[in-house]
Write a structure and sequence with these properties.
The structure holds two protein chains of two kinds. By secondary structure, chain A is of the alpha/beta class. Chain A has five helices and six strands. In chain A, a hairpin with a 5-residue loop joins strand 4 and strand 5. Classes of the chains: A alpha/beta, B mainly beta. Chain A: It is found in: Cell membrane; Membrane.
Chain lengths: 297, 87
């Protein structure tokens, strides 16, 4: 008879211990998301300055450089896909992978060969499970990205880009990552890093025209030095945004998991009380029936 | 008198910003001094000292490594890979 109650008791106990884990993970994510956001903010002056400089150099037509030239018919593209290392972040990795799939489909339609570069264990697992090839993978620090890693990825990509198509280089570089809009919305986006879509015209048409700079030592050398840094900084800010998004998604997922655990505990407690009441009623009925039987005999 | 609006940033943080009377830095072709009214310049930095003279007086010295700086209508942006300020 006591079996039913015991089952419910066990369920309540296990659910509440899970709830504790969810709560703890939520708290950890909350504390880290703040840090990730402030890191993203701290890196933004650099990113802005370098973007401005690159647009200024690239908008001067008399400069000829590999990195500002347009390839008429792009045939091969590198696609960097930024997912997370660990799960328990709701649909975070799934969303960004889905976005990358639609980009790959579009590239395929345009007859562009895509080369995936993966970032994060979840992306790797996604490709491994489907037996798909990828060019290179970086894992291990999606929730706390480092400048060194960004430099490494940037270097790999720029090397690929500078290489001509015939000897295996790429013509375009895309970045798929999750943009941090707010604590509740994170959106997977695709950004093309190269060729430069010159002038980030976010300031609108009212912005001042780019100044005509004198270059020291020469425009070519400045571009040579600037572009890897620009790519690096774009990748680094994408990594920071992605980490903030990952943590925010994890916090949200853990919050709803803890809420669901609460709900379950309430339900099981009710069922447990019901079962206990039923048991008592049963016992009483048996007693009374027994007494009646004795009295009538 | 016109002043320079200086901003020094490193890869992952802003290092220093403020109004200055002059700025001296080392490019890969040699030292360069900037006073208000300088023509727009975009130059690559070599490793070395960056000396800023703030309007309030005194000097701010920073050791910078790699990067570039741009001058554009009295607005200077120094973008360094690494930068350490020593007042």
């Amino acid at each position: 008879m006591g079996a039913q109650i015991r089952v419910y008791r066990q369920k309540i106990a296990s659910t509440s211990s899970m709830k504790k884990i969810f709560k703890a993970m939520e708290l950890i994510a909350t504390s880290r998301v703040g840090k990730a956001r402030s890191r993203a903010q701290a890196a933004s002056p650099y990113a802005e300055a370098i973007t401005r400089a690159v647009s200024a150099v690239a908008s001067q037509d008399d400069v000829e450089h590999v990195l500002t030239e347009k390839v008429a018919n792009p045939q091969r593209a590198a696609v960097v896909i930024m997912a997370s290392d660990r799960g328990l972040a709701g649909a975070y990795s799934t969303n960004v992978l889905k976005r990358s799939e639609s980009l790959l489909a579009r590239l395929k339609q345009d007859n562009i060969e895509a080369r995936p570069y993966l970032y994060g264990r979840k992306a790797q697992a996604f490709y491994d499970f489907r037996n798909r090839d990828y060019e290179q993978v970086w894992t291990g620090q999606t929730d706390a990205p480092s400048v060194v890693r960004a430099r490494e990825i940037g270097q790999t990509l720029v090397d690929q880009f500078v290489e001509p198509y015939e000897s295996g280089g790429v013509d375009e570089i895309y970045l798929v990552f999750t943009e941090f809009k707010s604590m509740v919305t994170q959106e997977p986006v695709v950004k093309r890093l190269l060729p430069l879509s010159v002038v980030e015209s976010e300031e609108g048409a009212g912005a001042e025209p780019m100044p005509l700079y004198d270059f020291e030592p020469s425009a070519e050398e400045v571009l040579d030095a600037l572009l890897p840094k620009y790519i690096e900084s774009r990748i680094f800010s994408a990594m920071l945004e992605a980490s903030a998004s990952e943590l925010a998604a994890r916090q949200k997922a853990m919050k709803s998991a803890a809420d669901n655990a609460d709900e379950l505990i309430r339900k099981y407690t009710l069922l447990r009380n019901n079962a206990r009441q039923a048991e008592i009623t049963q016992e009483l009925t048996e007693l009374i029936a027994g007494a009646d039987a004795l009295a009538s005999s | 008198m016109a002043t320079l609006d200086v901003q020094v940033v490193a890869t992952d943080h802003a290092v220093w910003s403020g109004e200055a009377k002059s700025l001296t830095g080392r490019t890969i072709e040699g030292d360069i001094g900037i006073l208000p009214g300088h023509t727009p310049v975009l130059a690559l930095l070599a490793e070395g000292e960056l000396v800023i003279e703030p309007v309030e007086g005194g000097t701010v010295k920073a050791h910078v490594k790699g990067g570039f700086f741009s001058v554009d209508s009295d607005k200077i942006t120094v973008v360094a890979d690494e930068a350490d300020v020593s007042e």
